[in-house]
Specification:
Length: 394
């Protein structure tokens, strides 16, 4: 397969315009670290942002950074860290879960709306994304947004591109709002809670005025207990005060420890990257978003029918579930669980033949699918950009 690696926006425009004229289907990629996600698309060639790298604007005082789409995420984080700043949404690194190599790109973070545990406080990538440049399926260069957050009238192209998985355009540059890096991070660990008790504790913490930035529960293998994690970040004095108040609020849960330093950072990284499930390499991985209080109901529903393992993030609103890969990899059970309890399920990891046969993303209603097809046609009339990556025929 031909792999196009444009060095700038103009190159990308020429490649895509030529592909549209010839009906050449293009796989849109960065460095390919998330290639095993989504539906396998049948394409004729690939266009990669790997050669489009570099910070194009950084204003620490304005808390804004812009970078070409192929810039490694680690490079962006390094530049920000040198000024005591960070990406607010704590982007997940999928490499361990997917078994891929290479450097994840900042363009993929925007294209797939990737975030981590801090989403409960800071929002997702799309909430910090304030500007994009991209080439649509006609080969036209489009710019939307800029250096400041602002209200818009009409179609918000910045938010539309976030989570579009390269089906609407080839991102060439992204601009994010950033935040100061917290002075201290401390994690309250409560041990021995079952799923329902853990979600109760997490809900109390998240409903408090203490600005929780991480809320997860890692069940034991026997599902009878586990570790419940509540993270606080900020100035040292503030974290001290809030931690004491949080412990007082949750005192009836008893078995508490405070974890800090390298061990705490590694633990939250394992939550962020779902590496808790990576030892189950022959199993499918699902990502379920639901109402936080419904997380245990979804997990219990799945466990009644399947040999499943799971853990909770976002106070129970995000459930990572591992299922056997046989048959439909648990799709029918997961879909029934989300219909019954609310939410939506995405198949993150499974063999290509399984992903080809299933709805990887939560199936849309007829009305929503009509809207999806219409938006796709307006941005990519020839249907050449990542065809079928999200939904069959789109």
């Amino acid at each position: 397969m031909t792999v196009h690696t444009p060095r700038d926006e103009q190159d990308a425009s020429i490649i895509i315009r030529d592909a549209a004229d010839k009906g050449t289907l293009l796989n849109v990629a960065g460095n390919g670290t998330k290639a095993p996600m989504g539906r396998p698309n049948q394409t004729d060639a690939s266009i990669s942002s790997a050669a489009m790298s570099g910070i194009t604007l950084y204003e620490p005082a304005e808390l804004v950074i812009s970078a070409k789409s192929g810039t490694p995420v680690l490079e962006v984080m390094r530049v920000l860290a040198a000024k005591g700043q960070e990406l607010p949404f704590e982007p997940m690194d999928y490499r361990s879960l997917l078994g891929t190599r290479g450097d994840p790109t900042i363009g993929a973070v925007a294209a797939m709306n990737i975030s981590g545990p801090r989403r409960i406080m800071a929002g997702a990538a799309r909430d910090s994304l304030i500007g994009v440049r991209f080439v649509n399926g006609r080969g036209e260069v489009v710019k939307s947004g800029g250096r400041v957050m602002k209200n818009v009238t009409g179609l918000d192209l910045v938010k539309l591109m976030a989570g579009s998985w390269g089906t609407l355009g080839f991102l060439t540059e992204v601009t994010f709002k950033v935040l100061p890096k917290p002075e201290r991070m401390a994690t309250l660990v409560i041990r021995g809670l079952d799923d329902n008790q853990a979600i109760e504790a997490l809900s109390m913490a998240l409903g408090s005025p203490f600005d929780v930035t991480g809320a997860a529960h890692l069940p034991d293998r026997d599902r009878r207990g586990g570790s419940t994690l509540i993270r606080l970040e900020g100035f040292r004095v503030s974290v001290d005060y809030r931690m004491n108040e949080l412990k007082r609020l949750l005192k009836r849960f008893r078995f508490m420890d405070i974890l800090e330093g390298v061990g705490a950072e590694a633990l939250w990284q394992s939550v962020r990257d779902a590496t808790i499930l990576t030892d189950q390499s022959q199993r499918a991985i699902w990502r379920v978003s639901t109402a936080p209080t419904k997380g245990p109901d979804v997990a219990a529903h799945v466990a009644q029918a399947l040999d499943a393992q799971w853990f909770y993030d976002w106070g129970g609103g995000l459930v990572w579930i591992s299922t056997p890969v046989d048959g439909d990899a648990g799709a029918s059970v997961l879909r029934e669980a989300t219909r019954t309890h609310g939410g939506h399920a995405t198949l993150v990891r499974a063999p290509a033949e399984v992903r080809s046969a299933l709805d990887v993303f939560e199936p849309q209603s007829d009305a929503l699918m009509t809207l999806t097809r219409g938006i796709k046609a307006s941005f990519d009339p020839a249907g050449i950009l990542n065809p079928g990556r999200m939904y069959a025929g789109v």
